[in-house]
Design goal:
Lysozyme, mainly alpha, 4 strands
């Protein structure tokens, strides 16, 4: 006799009060219907702020959203905190004021700059406040007076030196015009006037027509080749002009002083003997001195 057995109900047809979990029966139990479920923080929305004293001034500790009782939010959302910030609110207001006032200020400044009445008002300020500072005429006058004072001192010093040289070299019958040219051109070429007078006295005795046996010409006894090296288009006739001769000769001496790093004695030796000769003697360890620098420096005619 065959007795039929009741087949077990398949899992998908089973009914139970407990939910079925994919890996087993769920351990979580839903709360009773009358209990308000607590939603995780990630499910809360920024506008669920009912009952939050930081948001709407209420003193309740909880708020309700969609029938669900939620815990009180601490501090509110980022948007709410920014919106409620006084610094942000007043900052936005300040930006609005600045944005509105800036074009007006620029327009007013332009108007004042082109307004003749404004210029008249400014013209009164120097007389009232500080005329020596604000008045352009007063500043210009003070500047001119200062320059004139310096110029007077320079002229006085120049005249004093020239008078001394004329007295020192009176035996050479030096004209005042020549003395002034030596002084002025020496300063233009950065040569000490005392050395300039000593050089001209030693080289030519202040005679522009002087010519050496080797062909050196004029007050500073320039060789034509040396002069053309310094000024390409210069001619022998040009070297007979006293001012041209002085200018090229003093320029040559200034170049030699630079070559020997400010050593005036070596520069004078090179002027007399030639820089090539002086360099060869120095390279051999010798002394190129021939007494010429002493003649120039002692013949300055200064007291």
């Amino acid at each position: 006799m065959h007795t039929s057995r009741k087949r077990p109900t398949p899992p998908w047809q089973r009914t139970s009060q407990d939910p079925v979990h994919p890996v087993g029966r769920a351990r979580r139990r839903f709360p009773a219907a009358e209990a308000a479920p607590q939603l995780p923080a990630r499910y809360r929305r920024s506008f669920d702020g009912a009952g939050d004293p930081r948001i709407n001034g209420t003193s309740t500790d909880q708020r309700v959203s969609g029938g669900v009782l939620l815990p009180r939010r601490r501090g509110g959302s980022a948007y709410e905190r920014v919106r409620g910030s006084k610094a942000v609110r007043y900052g936005v207001m300040g930006l609005g004021v600045v944005g509105t006032a800036t074009p007006l200020a620029i327009a007013r400044a332009n108007e004042m700059r082109t307004d003749p009445s404004h210029e008249r008002q400014l013209s009164v300020i120097p007389q009232i406040a500080a005329p020596k500072v604000l008045n352009d005429g007063a500043v210009g006058q003070a500047w001119r007076e200062a320059r004139l004072e310096v110029a007077d001192k320079q002229v006085g010093a120049r005249d004093q030196v020239i008078e001394q040289k004329l007295e020192a070299f009176k035996s050479y019958n030096v004209s005042r015009e020549l003395a002034e040219d030596i002084y002025d051109i020496a300063l233009e070429e950065n040569i000490d006037p005392d050395i300039a007078f000593g050089l001209v006295r030693t080289e030519s005795s202040f005679k522009n027509a002087a010519t050496s046996h080797v062909g050196a010409i004029g007050l500073t006894q320039l060789m034509p080749a040396t002069a053309r090296w310094l000024q390409k288009d210069v001619t022998i006739r040009d070297l007979r002009d006293s001012r041209t001769n002085l200018r090229i000769g003093f320029k040559y001496l200034n170049d030699l002083i630079k070559k020997y790093d400010g050593d005036t004695k070596l520069a004078l030796l090179a002027y007399n003997r030639g820089p090539g000769t002086v360099d060869r003697v120095l390279k051999r360890g010798g002394d190129p001195d021939n007494g010429y620098p002493d003649m120039v420096l002692k013949g300055q005619g200064s007291h």
